[in-house]
Design brief:
- The protein is of the alpha+beta class.
- Helices cover 24% and strands 41% of the residues.
- It is built from 3 helices and 8 strands; from the N terminus they run E-E-H-E-E-H-E-H-E-E-E.
- The chain has a 5-stranded antiparallel sheet with strand order 3-4-2-5-7. The protein has a 3-stranded antiparallel sheet with strand order 1-8-6.
- One of its GO terms (biological process) is DNA damage response.
- Pfam families: SIMPL.
- It comes from Actinomadura hallensis.
- This is DUF541 domain-containing protein.
Amino acid sequence: MSDAPTISVRGEAVLEAEPEIARLTVHVQSQESDRRTALDRLTERNRRCLDLVESYGEAVEKLETGGLAIMPVLKYRRREGDVRAYRGTVQIRLTVTDFGVLGELVTRLADQERAYVDGPEWALRRESEVYRRAAREAAREAVERARRYAEALGTRLTGLVELADEGLGRDRDAGGPVTLAAAYGGAAAGAPEEPEPIDLEPATQIVRAAVEARFTVAPPDLEPR
């Protein structure tokens, strides 16, 4: 093990970037007195939502359906009773890359019968170059900080002992989702066929990277002058 003196430092980078994707979750529901009817209504409404999303083509990068459930709604909450109705639910999750159509898509989905939308959740792609750039800047900051310490001691860096990544992460508080709910039973009489698109401003993404590093230095001359 080397007896060379070492300097330990921490390097950090904080970058701001425009989001690259927006995630939406569409909740589709049905409620009928008959189980099969509830399932049929849910299937029909789910298909309408899927057809609407698919009509946007490449603007929607990813489309998934999950969380399907048909459950009885009882007349009494605290004890067993007769079934009052059957409630069906299904979730549609999608990732949108074209923000130019996002406001229109959100309002059209929210206008569907017995559907509501959670989102958008703004994000960067997992493989985004922004994360790599933040890591590089954090490492450079660690080197520069260690070099300044060495210069203050009248010595110089001679080698790298260790570089540990503290992790990368986006500020999850940035750009919280909004919820739009469509009135059950469809559009009111006299309402326009298509709702007006809602204005959505992409939320700036904050990316942080931090590293810890240890460098060896030439033995400094600490004698008083």
